Structure formats: C-alpha cells, structure tokens
Amino acid sequence: MTLTALGLVLTASLAHAVWNAAAKTVRGHGYAFVFAYQLVSAVLLLPMGIAIIAQQPDLIGWPLLGVAVVSGLLHIAYSVTLQIGYDRADLGIVYPVARGTGPVLTMLIALAMLGERPGWPGILGGLIIVTGIAVVTVPGRPAAGVTGRRESSRLLVPGLFWGGLTGTFIAGYTLWDHHVVTTTEYPPLLYFALSSAVNAVVMAPRAMCRPAELRAVAVSDKRAVSVVAVLSPLAYILVLIAMQQAPVSLVAPLRETSIIIGVLLAWWLFGERDLGRRLAGAAIVISGVGLIALA
Fold first, then answer.
1. How many of the other CB atoms lie within 10 Å of CB of 66?
2. What burial letters (b/e) apply to 68-79, b meaning 16+ CB within 10 Å?
3. Helices 30-55, 211-220: crossing angle, 10 deg rounding
4. Which residues of the chain, if any, have pLDDT below 70?
5. Which domain holds residue 130?
6. Residue 145 in domain
7. Would 204 be classed as within a structural domain?
8. With helix as H, strand as E and coil as C, how does 38-61 read?
9. CB atoms within 10 A of CB 31
10. HSE-up of 117 (CA within 13 Å, CB side)?
C-alpha cells in the first residue's frame, strides 16, 4: 500500500468517526435525519458532478445510473440501520461492532471470490485489527448484582445486533463500490454524487409523510445534519479514491482505525465507560495498521 493511499484512508477514518459522533446526538427521528443529511450532501455534491459531466459528457447513460442506484440502496440500508442502532445502544458498542463486522466480511469475500492476494503482512494486519476491535467491543465486568448484569445485557445485545447488521451492509456497499470504481471509468466524485442524489430521491416520499420529524430535525439537529452532510461524503470519496490505488482487502480493514477516535469520542462526549480496555484494543489496532502499511 502506498503512502498516498494510507494517508487517504486515515484521513477518511478521522472524518468518519467525527460524523458518527454527530449522528449519535440525534434521538427519536432517525429516518428524517438520514434523509436530511443525504439531501444536503446531494445538493453540495451536485455542482461538482455537473462539472465532471460537462468535461466528460460521454459518461452519461443508463449504466452509470444503474450502478449508482445499487450503491444508493445499499447506503440507505446502511445509514438507516446505523441510526436505529445509535438510538438504541451505546456509540462505543455499535460503532466498533459495525466497523469490525464490515471488514471481516469484506476481506473474506475479497480473498475467496475476487482473487486478491495482499500478502501475509496485509492479511495478518487485518486479523490483528479485527482482534483489537474485539477487545474494544467485549464488555467489561458489570456492576455487582443482578441489576448490573441486566443493565450490561440491555446495552450490549441491541448494540451487537444493530452493529452486526450495519456491518453486513458495510461489506455490501464496500465490495460493490470497489467493483465499480476499479472496473469502470466513472470518477469516484461523480459516482458518489449521483449515488447521494439517488439516496435523497428514494427516501423523499416516506420522509415527506413525516413533516413533524422533518421540522424537529431542522430545528434541533441542524448542526448534526451539517456535520454529517459534509464529512460523510468526504470520508467515503477518499476511500473510493484509495480503492483505486490499493486492494479492497487492505483498504477495508485499515479504514476501521476510526474506532480509535470513536472510542475516545464515546468516552469524552457521552460518558461511556471502560476507556482503558478500549484504548488497549485501539493499540492493538494500531499495530495491525503498521503491518498493513508494509503490505
């Protein structure tokens, strides 16, 4: 993996963790919130997409729309599932589980079906990253008594379920988008701009049936909408560009270094516990990053 690709993915990881922390602050109207930031993202990306098409008009056609629709649907499923998870469980559980499940599935499929061979340093680095994520995720000792165990289970089980389901969609869109950006001539920025527009159009009918939730988002969550609308596409466009320079089986686990920042934000902003254990897991992740950088 080149230093350029490494820098792109690590920058994307920082942006990703920050926008997820912003999304965690939203409570009770997740679908309207997802629609709002998808709409703002589409509006922000539209001028750049138009500029690319003006320079390369031959890109316009049904094939471009088709691949963007598939990507958009996968990203909608991911975004809505993630927001439900944040509404029902801790950031420090949902985020590591989601970011851990995704690369595990992505790497296994990439190795088994795509014929990628990143070398033993890359594979070992990916496995070490997954181990670090497990350390971050496994709950610490609950408070004494039945009440403490029940509270731990109440927080853990929904986090594992929604995090795991989110990770499945992460693997789906990662592999699909990797296929598109590496087998077609579509610029990642144009591809993601059109995908964001698809997201907004598909989600609009249901969102418009919830005017009260849209008003609540516009009043109470406009800052979170702005943060996610900017940082979410930025993070993923950087990843798409990195995918053009390095195997997906390396990019996918490396981008999960965002859990280091996510763990710190969960402790700092939301008062979530077990910081020491989770930072130990983050240190394991960093060692895996070092091996991936050598691949």
1. 10
2. bbbbbbbbbbbb
3. 80
4. 103-104, 106-107, 110, 114-118, 137-155, 249, 252, 289, 292-295
5. 3-140+151-294
6. no
7. yes
8. HHHHHHHHHHHHHHHHHHCHHHCC
9. 19
10. 1
CA distance 79 to 99: 13
- And the tokens for 44? 């922000």
> Residue 98 in contact with residue 167, Cβ under 8 Å?
yes
SS3 295: coil
Two tokens, residue 47: 């001028």
Which tokens go with 283? Answer: 């240190």
Query: pLDDT (tens digit, 9 = 90+) per residue, 107-146?
Result: 677 677 766 666 777 778 778 877 877 787 666 555 444 4
Q: What DSSP designation does 183 have? A: H
| Cβ neighbours of residue 11 closer than 8 Å, sequence gap 6 or more | 238
* Structural contact between residues 251 and 242, judged by C-beta atoms closer than 8 angstroms: yes
Any domain includes 146:
no
Structure tokens at 93: 């559980």
Tens of pLDDT, residue by residue over 34-64, are: 999 999 999 999 899 999 999 999 988 999 9
Instruction: Please give the tally of structural domains in the chain.
Output: 1
- How many whole angstroms separate alpha carbon 69 and alpha carbon 196? 9
What are the structure tokens assigned to 285, written together? 């992740």
The model carries a pTM of: 0.82
By the 8 A CB rule, do 136 and 263 touch? yes
The verdict on residue 54 lying in a domain is yes
CB atoms within 10 A of CB 239: 28
Joined together, the tokens standing for residue 173 give: 């869109």
Q: How many residues does the chain have?
A: 295
> Residue 2 phi/psi, 5° resolution?
-75, 160
